[in-house]
Amino acid sequence: MLIAERLAGPLPAYRVRVERDAVRRFADAIGAADDVHHDSAAARAAGHRDVLAPPTYLFGVDLERGDVLRRLADAGADPASCLHVSQEFGYDSSVCAGDTLLLSPSFAVPSLPGRGPREFVARDTVVRRPDGGRVAWLRQVVAVQARATTGSAA
Q: By the 8 A CB rule, do 139 and 127 touch?
């Protein structure tokens, strides 16, 4: 059975509160220098509720809080062999410091052929506000390789 097939299906949803300092640190890490990502007054002057999270911020949250690497390892993947293939996302509304969000991730088998010893795993996450309104959708595809097993069949 493929690693993606072992993982396929919904995972437990989890809540996060978007913290101002975390948004600033993430913006610094990716080189997002625009004041709306660092200064509350500048963000509000631009029409945002508070410091604006860069578009890829939610991927970082999901990677950290969604326990992605542990789940891949539990399904038989070698975490050291995981390679980022692609990511895509769409936003229905902005994400700002102070927001509380509910992330609902699931793993899926993408419609991509395996290549050699590697296979592909997709992680889809829907992000909603507490009232149920959708904020964003995320999709990340990684290439994984099964962990080497000890011994060999003769």
A: no
Give the DSSP H/E element, type plus range, for residue 5. Answer: helix 3-7
Instruction: Give me the residue label for tokens 């789940």.
Output: 71
Determine the Cα–Cα distance for residues 43 and 14; give it in Å rounded to an integer.
Answer: 27
Q: Which helix (H) or strand (E) holds 143?
A: strand 134-145
Angle at 21 between CA 70 and CA 67, to 5 degrees: 10
Cα separations in angstroms, 61 against 22, 57, 137: 10, 6, 13
Q: What is the pLDDT of residues 84-139, one digit of tens each?
A: 899 999 999 999 999 999 999 999 888 766 666 778 889 999 999 999 999 999 99
Helix segments in 18-98, DSSP class H: 20-30, 40-45, 57-65, 68-74
CA atoms within a 13 Å half-sphere pointing along the CA-CB vector of 83 = 11
* Residue 67 φ then ψ, to 5°: 60, 40
